[in-house]
């Protein structure tokens, strides 16, 4: 296991590249995580650079195709930083972006704590702790030159490609009895191209994905806290974007959310 000083040093290196919009080929060998646990230990120090409480969590690689694309064998959790939140309809610069994609997602906000425990959480327990559902757009990014080549441990260390995100208003329509796996989700780019998907793209159901991350955090000794938001993974194939595009995430009866790229 990497010692605490090496985990902090590795995190500072990644955060420095994040802040500058620069990239590295890989974490230096003497600081490089070899396991998911070491990757999460490095990731935890991303909060050292944030003055605000943790906004919430994201799930990366929630589809088999996505996992194969970046050469990982399962989903990964990452932290959402409050200063990376973008207002609905706001603008995002692509000047230093490596990925240049937008993802349309379901987001859940917790109303009460889910503390770590030995027994896994069941879906019903997790959903009972949810206060609200929201439409969301994630604009992920990586601090690596080739994020498909570095492996799961380094991707987790790099905050599971977390970057910018947009959270829409809480859904007013009743949603708890809706089959979210079958619910249609659409991404529209500048009123032209349409990208269609459903909630089934995220581990089969956004509720399953949400339960997965709660159990992942529990295994790390981390509680999900009231007010924190989880974005559960893209329901459409990641949408390639360029400067001048506007992306609208349309969840039908559950609302719309948008972001512009400059």
Global Rg: 17 Å
The count of β-strands is 13
Mean pLDDT, as a whole number? 97
Low-confidence stretches: none
CATH architecture label = Alpha-Beta Complex
CATH superfamily: Fumarylacetoacetase-like, C-terminal domain
| Secondary structure tally, helices | 6
CATH topology: Fumarylacetoacetate hydrolase, domain 2
The secondary-structure element order is HHEHEEEEHEHEEEHEEEE
Percent strand equals 25-35%
Q: What is the number of independent domains?
A: 1
Biggest β-sheet strands, sense, barrel: 8 strands, mixed
For the record, what CATH class applies? Answer: Alpha Beta
Q: Quick one: overall form?
A: globular
Characterization of this structure:
- The chain is of the alpha+beta class.
- It is built from six helices and 13 strands.
- The chain has helices at residues 4-20, 36-44, 64-69, 123-128, 152-157, 206-219, and strands spanning 56-60, 76-80, 85-86, 91-92, 101-110, 130-139, 164-167, 184-189, 193-198, 229-234, 239-240, 246-250, 256-261.
- The strands form two sheets. Strands 1, 2, 3, 5, 6, 7, 10 and 11 form an eight-stranded mixed β-sheet that branches. A five-stranded mixed β-sheet has the order 4-13-12-8-9, with no helix packed on it.
- Strand 8 and strand 9 form a beta hairpin.
- Helix 1 (4-20) packs across helix 2.
- The radius of gyration is 17 Å and the shape is globular.
Compile the SSE list and pairings.
Elements: H1 4-20, H2 36-44, E1 56-60, H3 64-69, E2 76-80, E3 85-86, E4 91-92, E5 101-110, H4 123-128, E6 130-139, H5 152-157, E7 164-167, E8 184-189, E9 193-198, H6 206-219, E10 229-234, E11 239-240, E12 246-250, E13 256-261
Parallel strand pairs: 1-10, 3-7, 4-13
Antiparallel strand pairs: 1-2, 5-6, 5-10, 5-11, 6-7, 8-9, 8-12, 12-13
Helix pairs in contact: 1-2
């Amino acid at each position: 296991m990497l010692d605490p000083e090496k985990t902090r040093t590795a995190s500072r290196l990644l955060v420095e590249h994040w802040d500058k919009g620069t990239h590295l080929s890989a974490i230096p060998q003497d600081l490089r995580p070899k396991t998911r646990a070491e990757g999460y230990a490095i990731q935890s120090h991303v909060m050292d650079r944030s003055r605000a409480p943790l906004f919430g969590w994201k799930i990366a690689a929630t589809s088999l195709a996505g996992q194969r694309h970046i050469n990982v064998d399962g989903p990964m959790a990452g932290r959402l930083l409050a200063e990376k939140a973008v207002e609905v309809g706001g603008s995002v610069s692509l000047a230093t972006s490596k990925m240049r994609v937008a993802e349309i997602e379901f987001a859940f906000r917790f109303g009460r704590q889910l503390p770590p425990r030995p027994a896994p959480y069941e879906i019903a327990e997790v959903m009972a702790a949810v206060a609200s559902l929201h439409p969301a757009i994630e604009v992920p990014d990586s601090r690596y030159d080739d994020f498909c080549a570095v492996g799961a441990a380094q991707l987790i260390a790099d905050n599971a490609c977390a970057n910018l995100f947009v959270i829409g208003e809480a859904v007013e329509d009743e949603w708890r009895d809706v089959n979210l796996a079958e619910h249609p989700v659409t991404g529209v780019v500048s009123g032209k191209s349409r990208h269609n998907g459903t909630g089934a793209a995220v581990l089969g159901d956004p509720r399953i994905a949400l339960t997965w991350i709660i159990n992942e955090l529990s295994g790390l000794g981390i509680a999900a806290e009231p007010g924190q938001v989880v974005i559960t993974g893209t329901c459409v194939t990641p949408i390639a974007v360029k400067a001048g595009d506007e992306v609208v995430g349309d969840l039908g009866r559950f609302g719309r959310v948008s972001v512009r790229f400059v």
